[in-house]
Design goal:
This protein is 90% helix and 0% strand. The chain has three helices and no strands.
């Protein structure tokens, strides 16, 4: 997958996640449920173990994402340097 395709897929994933959150809030509101209160309730009924697992999975995903971005930036910088040297 090219770096530009990866960037687009990340942007698409973020847009889809934001849309899903908006749709969830809309669904709650359509049923007379305050979205903030619903989130607070769900947070209160999850166990510390479940929260720890979810947080660990989230952190692992974020670390992987940050590494891919660093790699992408590094490869982009390398490509630009090689292109400039060839043009001279």
């Amino acid at each position: 997958m090219s770096s530009s395709n990866r960037t687009l897929s990340y942007e698409d994933a973020i847009a889809q996640a934001e849309m899903a959150l908006q749709e969830t809030d809309k669904l709650f509101e359509e049923h007379g449920i305050d979205p903030g209160k619903a989130r607070a309730y769900f947070a209160s009924v999850t166990t510390p173990e479940i929260r720890a697992q979810a947080e660990a999975a989230f952190n692992a995903d974020m670390q992987a994402l940050h590494q891919e971005v660093r790699d992408l930036l590094k490869s982009t910088a390398t490509t630009r340097t090689k292109t400039r040297r060839q043009m001279v």
